[in-house]
Design brief:
The chain has helices at about 15-25, 70-80, and strands at about 10, 30-35, 35-40, 45-50, 65-70, 90, 95-100, 105-115. The chain is an alpha/beta fold.
Amino acid sequence: MKFSFDCVFYYVSDLDRAVDFYTRVLGFKLLSRDSVARFDIGGVLFELVSKPGGQRPQAAGNARLCLRVDNVTQAIGELQSQGVRVSPPEVKATGSLAFFQDPDGNEVCLWEYSK
């Protein structure tokens, strides 16, 4: 059996609110939308899927969306200017990272590689 990549997705309680956040705040390109919203992030298919009955998704597992940025401090400032709460940057051996949450509490990571 051969496996191939399909997508990464997050459950959300309000698809309209989530689509607004990912398009307006993060600038993702919406590819299509029906019962699922689909985005292209650098050639990777990212989807938002409505949780049945508008229930708030429960955190499970440890997966997260990680976005590469050229300057983590600048990215933090831009997100904060739009009302997003972002952690302070953490310096690691190979770069710097920070975290924030989408409106449903799904964690998103910002990553700046060391130069």
